[in-house]
Amino acid sequence: xxxxxxxxxxxxxxxxxxxxxxxxxxxxxxxxxxxxxxxxxxxxxxxxxxxxxxxxxxxxxxxxxxxxxxxxxxxxxxxxxxxxxxxxxxxxxxxxxxxxxxxxxxxxxxxxxxxxxxxxxxxxxxxxxxxxxxxxxxxxxxxxxxxxxxxxxxxxxxxxxxxxxxxxxxxxxxxxxxxxxxxxxxxxxxxxxxxxxxxxxxxxxxxxxxxxxxxxxxxxxxxxxxxxxxxxxxxxxxxxxxxxxxxxxxxxxxxxxxxxxxxxxxxxxxxxxxxxxxxxxxxxxxxxxxxxxxxxxxxxxxxxxxxxxxxxxxxxxxxxxxxxxxxxxxxxxxxxxxxxxxxxxxxxxxxxxxxxxxxxxxxxxxxxxxxxxxxxxxxxxxxxxxxxxxxxxxxxxxxxxxxxxxxxxxxxxxxxxxxxxxxxxxxxxxxxxxxxxxxxxxxxxxxxx
Amino acid sequence: xxxxxxxxxxxxxxxxxxxxxxxxxxxxxxxxxxxxxxxxxxxxxxxxxxxxxxxxxxxxxxxxxxxxxxxxxxxxxxxxxxxxxxxxxxxxxxxxxxxxxxxxxxxxxxxxxxxxxxxxxxxxxxxxxxxxxxxxxxxxxxxxxxxxxxxxxxxxxxxxxxxxxxxxxxxxxxxxxxxxxxxxxxxxxxxxxxxxxxxxxxxxxxxxxxxxxxxxxxxxxxxxxxxxxxxxxxxxxxxxxxxxxxxxxxxxxxxxxxxxxxxxxxxxxxxxxxxxxxxxxxxxxxxxxxxxxxxxxxxxxxxxxxxxxxxxxxxxxxxxxxxxxxxxxxxxxxxxxxxxxxxxxxxxxxxxxxxxxxxxxxxxxxxxxxxxxxxxxxxxxxxxxxxxxxxxxxxxxxxxxxxxxxxxxxxxxxxxxxxxxxxxxxxxxxxxxxxxxxxxxxxxxxxxxxxxxxxxxxxxxxxxxxxxxxxxxxxxxxxxxxxxxxxxxxxxxxxxxx
Lengths: 449, 498
Fold this sequence. Notes:
The structure holds two protein chains of two kinds.
Chain A: H1 2-26, E1 29-35, H2 46-54, H3 61-72, H4 84-87, H5 96-118, E2 127-132, H6 141-149, E3 156-160, H7 167-181, E4 186-192, H8 205-213, E5 218-224, E6 235-244, H9 249-252, E7 255-259, E8 265-269, H10 273-292, H11 295-306, E9 321-324, H12 329-339, H13 347-356, H14 363-373, E10 382-389, E11 393-401, H15 412-417, H16 424-429, H17 445-448
Parallel strand pairs in A: 2-3, 2-4, 9-10
Antiparallel strand pairs in A: 1-5, 1-6, 4-5, 6-11, 7-8, 10-11
Chain B: H1 7-26, H2 28-46, H3 49-60, H4 64-84, E1 90-96, H5 107-117, H6 122-134, H7 145-148, H8 156-178, E2 187-192, H9 201-209, E3 216-220, H10 227-241, E4 246-253, H11 265-273, E5 277-284, E6 295-304, H12 309-313, E7 315-319, E8 325-329, H13 333-352, H14 355-370, E9 388-391, H15 396-405, H16 414-423, H17 430-440, E10 449-456, E11 460-468
Parallel strand pairs in B: 2-3, 2-4, 9-10
Antiparallel strand pairs in B: 1-5, 1-6, 4-5, 6-11, 7-8, 10-11
């Protein structure tokens, strides 16, 4: 009898050890990430933004007012970046080359730095995932990177496109799945958005918002599942939840690329977008709360709910940092209220929106960069990344911080100068919020109006 | 009496020698077992009954500990083996889109359009005519409605409606065929190279069929004509991680926004070759699908030659001097395709070739390295490893080149040539039209191995090996070849005079 028990114990031990080894090899570690900081000659300040709006001959005075109001209330500062063709005045005659040039500048800036800082060679990369929503060329951007950095010929590459602002989390999903069936691998994720060929030159108000909000930016990340590299890594992926509301027509059409009544291509944003975002978010929370909140908090919530009192989940019981997609001030505010957070919790997202604008899929990484630059990320902290995108999707993931993080990265100048968050557009164009239609004398718009 | 045997007899002799050699090497282990088994049998027959019975009895009376530990060792090894074995991926079924007759583009229509649109460039018109004459395409290939306009009207609206038409028709017939409900789909992968709207085509499918909100959807773009196999690779990786799941893979190429409207010759070539098409494939890793699945995935190998500049630039989307966007095909395409194929074969060869071929290849390799570098490299006989070949119908030249380099017969490349003739180059979905052709001809039997090879911009060469799970006796009713399979194979002349 004892022999049988002993045999069972040995078997259980061996089995658990095997399982533990397997799980350890399947973890997804973020080794390093590099956000893109374009050169200063690409800054879109108030002066330049105003002149770009003013030179659009398609806009009537109501549209000018709308556009300026959107810029003033957007929450974006003086230092966000635009693509070269828009700054050079060629926003209406963009070419495929402009889009590719924007991507090339981003690749050369971030990838070289990434490989140097991590001391990883491009030949060690086993998986490459690229996501850029609004640019699709042949050969793909993934092939372009393989060519630029001379990667191996058995590298697996995936080029995602059209997946919206939450696409970087989808790329992480592909990587974490890959790591579960391939041991000792390195993956490179490149996420960005193509602004150059997507300037809207028509006068449909629902399509002009993207001109005001989207800015150039991008991020490259190096991930691995090699257990030996855990100590050098920054974050470990704990869980990832994807929610797709495409089945609902209202959700599907709330962010859509289409032609306006005059046949000009633009990106349509519906008024109900914040509401749809909230719905998607609620569904996503329902799943992720189960995995990342502490048991005591969940227990408290259920007890409160069933005793028919008003019950709200306190997310701070399990999450230390909130990394929200800075889609716009309205979206950030909606999420903040939904989660019951205070203004300090959403400060990184607001600062990222102010400094870099809405860089679409890569914006989450700028928010992460801010938190790291402010030295807020300590070992053991949990970080929740929430992204939204057209479709309508809400994707979120929870990371655990492996070691204390202090890299100032692209936020170095902001941290040094301790610039205050000021809305520069308010100074110049605050008259737009008043009810009168008269612009101040000498301004660009006096003639047009 | 002639001093030497006649050449015909020598060839026959060589053939028999080769057959014997293959039989010996491929069944080496079995052949080795025969003398061992004989020796053991002889020994057993020699010893008297009592000593034999005594020996067996003492074996059974072994220590209990020894017996238990042996048993547990077996259990542990079995558990570890079954847990680390990759899940089998089954191709339950697939459908190919059959465009309506109204979208047909016979040569006369194509040339008439060409003359009207390019009226200022008669040389370009003549160039297109020469390409069309030698293309290997037939008169029944189809272009989407927007391209039938003179001049074509490639709006985003029109591109979306082409996407809806081809994708939804394929998925509808796949759902009818397999009986799968939208709620049962766990993973969705859509690949379309040159059209990528936001929201993506995958979101469009989720919206139309009201798929679940926890679906894992992926939209691959820009990956060329080999993207179909890239989607299958992604599906395979995902199905290893998610047990009991169904994956819907949709491969298509949307022609509407990519019709070149300029006059540069190298960029007019795709206009002559690319045609409308789509395929929807249902994959599963559920064990019960083994009974109804058509194929099982054996291997999938991807090769990317992007690190070589020439390979990277050989299929390149760019603007012509007038600013019109089109795809430039370089003259080195065949050479680069050959190189990429060689790399791919180097990886897939050891996985699929029988021992006899591998040994010959190894011996020739050693011989070339040590004895004489002038020896011709041995090209393994892939006909030993596969019964059917599906070569991407990229163009006549591609099929000719591969037939020559792999030493295939006309029957092996018939599926590819006939698909090019009937449907044109439908990009990533062409492999599935070719598979459907082989099934429609009643040639697919249980146990047959199919090799799908696709090339794409980048430059990529991807290949997949499927094993047929059940014999398909007659042409499936919804096959795109249903109404025309009796006419095939047709003879395709070198040049069709227009």
